[in-house]
Amino acid sequence: RRLSLPRRPAPQWRTSHMAAVEEGASAEELGADCPYINEYCQQRHRGVVRCSWLKLKGRILLSSRTFQAGEIIFREPPLHIVAEQPGNPAFDRLKELCAKYNKVFEYEPLWYWTALNSLKPSQLPPGETRLKPITADQQRKLLLLFHSDVTQPSKASIELVKEMSLESHATALELEHLLQVWILNCFEHSDSPLGYSAYFMSSFMSHSCLPNAVWHYEGDNFVLRARSAIQDGDEITVSYLSEDSLLESTGSRRKHLRDSKHFECVCVRCGADRDYSRGFKCPACAGVMYHNHLEDRPGIAVLAPCEACGRLSAASDFVALFEQEKWFQSRLDECEQKMEKAGSDRSDIIKALEEALGKAEGVLSQHFLLDKAWTLLSDLYSRSARRQRDAESVVRKRIAFEEVAYPGLSGSRAWTLEGYADMILRHKVPSEAVAKTLAATVPKIYQDSLQILRLMFGNRHDYFSAVHRKAIELDAELKRFGCAA
Question: How much is the pTM?
């Protein structure tokens, strides 16, 4: 969940500069409104980024200068914010319609409310006070955000245009376009009342499983930071996946994106000949053989040569290894389902996980399913005072996996490090001997976590501040025993 604050006024445009931006633009870029977007980039963001168009991707965002990891690329205020309005006659009527005709109104009332409050003044009847119009320029920006091709309005949009007496001013298809924009581009803005926000520039960045940028909130602003070094002319990419999902295998990441965003990722990680989140133990030397999906054949997955001995596995090896992987996945799914049920016997779940993990670790190596199992076990172990060392052991395995799986700044790695340091400190009896032991390890773990979080989110973000406070408190405690790191 992401929260931000009230929107700020949209900037004014200079037509003379707009003409200059259009000069030299391709027909495709003109059709995609790239000159208009670049005028905004020039006005709002001093031209540090620019929009272009690619046949396979559509609109993309390019850097116009060099950025170092951790450097802010731009800050973006909300384009529009819409919240529920109990007591507003139009909103109350909308809720009644959604409840009474739930087969027609497939979404929650707020989704339709966002569309109704994204109409411009000319699309509302004179004297309309229930709905708040936005400027024509705001609406133009909203309609530039990604949305599916809509040629026919839904029954809900048709009914709303009639119900709100908009027939002479706005069409159902216009309302449907705005509805789809909000459904595919909004962020949660507030909880009480529930509100959604939309941002302009966020829609123009492509996904990568090894992105060179990351975004977060700072007050009411959408902040984009360089996640790695960016050169002038580089495409700026972000991840559409969570930090945890970035640690999964190529096949798993692609499935997430197909299911949620409806495209096949072809980024540098997904196009690599080794999947460092899906490794198997070499039958000859116990080294690692990584999945090479580029060589997969229909019905047969292929492994790259062993990293240690160079051995090439036979097709029969592939089949057996992937069958074991499939079995382990099913066992993990069963354990997760049991953990979600209230009152489940934790000891039975731990036993089942340990048995499945014991078999899997004989076959899998540097594998995201192992990381998933270690995550579940560390949570279960940490609830028992008798199993703290076991919890620490599996978290160390997670840290080692994450270091290889993702070759860049990883929020998940930072939070795993933070959790590991917290785990070591838990239930420790303050003494000089313990302090000396802690001083040799824990401060460094916190600092490694802070280094990642500072570059990804800045030193004013809550993610950084939470770990920083722990590091300061630990330092003060160590100094009390004369054992400062």
Answer: 0.86
